[in-house]
Amino acid sequence: MDIIHWISIGLVIVSFIIWFRRMLIKLQLERIQLPKNIPDSFQRKLDYVKQQEQVKHVSALLFVVFILAMTLLLIMFSLFQLEHQQQRVTEQNNQLKDELYLIKKDQKQLISKMPIKDYPKDGINLQEYPWEELFSEENREKQYKLESDLSAEISPYFGISTTLIVIDVPTQTLNIALAGDSGSENNLKQIKENINAFAKEAEGISKLTQITFQMNLMNDKEKKQTYSCTFSRENGDDTFSLIQEK
User: Fold this and answer.
1) 10 Å Cβ neighbour count for 177?
2) Taking the alpha carbons of 112, 113, 116, 117 in that order, is the dihedral positive or negative?
3) Helices 2-30 and 40-113 meet at what angle, rounded to 10?
4) For residue 214, which phi and psi values (nearest 5 degrees)?
5) 3-state secondary structure the chain
6) Rounded to whole angstroms, how far apart are CA atoms 89 and 92?
């Protein structure tokens, strides 16, 4: 593609040079002013030179048109190649999306067959996460990292989970929302116990005032069921209370 690009530029430059040279010769011939008593032989020679240059002008014009036509063909070929490459990239992206979808589907099926683990008695060290830094620095990357780390940490106890931390700077409080696919509906009892254990451990995070869970479960008929609940408290000294469950 780069070679075609530079060839096209070179052809345009050559066309411009030829056109400029012909125009310069034409102007020079037109500016010639002959005295009145000039011999007829000289006039005939000058007319002959002008006639020859006129022929060269026509030839040069045809050559410039040919060069420009070749340049246009090269540009069209380049655009065709570019469109073809874009089409191939689009097809590859669609193929990758399909493969990614199948991988995620297989991953969910695999995890759905894995039992949900008991929440650790000692917890997962929630208080050691840098919660205070979320308020002291306006750094979204730090929040994304914390959400990613927490999602990976709790996945054995809730399944495939996504964690979202919502920060309320004016009140200096934060909420945690956990959503994910937790496999079979048979895991619901264990998941509820893990949710209560997580909420109990999260009481140690002073700025945390609300926790929301939403878990997708598959029943025996392979239909998705959703279990959700919300814990809330007034301030960091209170215990979490279950205010909504469905």
Assistant:
1) 16
2) negative
3) 160
4) -145, 110
5) CHHHHHHHHHHHHHHHHHHHHHHHHHHHHHCCCCCCCCCHHHHHHHHHHHHHHHHHHHHHHHHHHHHHHHHHHHHHHHHHHHHHHHHHHHHHHHHHHHHHHHHHHHHHHHHHHCCCCCCCCCCCCHHHCCCCHHHHCCCHHHHHHHHHHHHHHHHHHHCEEEEEEEEECCCCEEEEEEEEEEEEHHHHHHHHHHHHHHHHHHCCCCCEEEEEEEEEEECCCCCEEEEEEEEECCCCCCCCEEEEEC
6) 5
Spatial separation of the C-alpha atoms in residues 175 and 149, rounded to whole Å: 16
- Residue 123 Rama label (left phi>0; alpha psi -120 to 50; beta): left
Q: How do beta strands 173-184 and 208-218 pair?
A: parallel
Q: Rounded to an integer, what distance in angstroms lies between the CA atom of residue 230 and that of residue 212?
A: 4
Token pair listed for 139: 């750094």
Structure tokens at 174: 């934060």
Angle at Cα 191 formed by Cα 165 and Cα 224, nearest 5°? 90
- 192-242 pLDDT per residue, tens: 888 889 889 888 888 888 888 888 776 655 667 788 889 888 887 888 888
Instruction: Name the β-bridge partners of 6.
Output: none
Tens of pLDDT, residues 19-74: 877 788 777 777 777 667 777 777 777 777 777 777 777 787 788 888 888 888 88
- What is the rounded CA–CA span in Å between residue 145 and residue 133? 12
pTM, 2 dp = 0.55
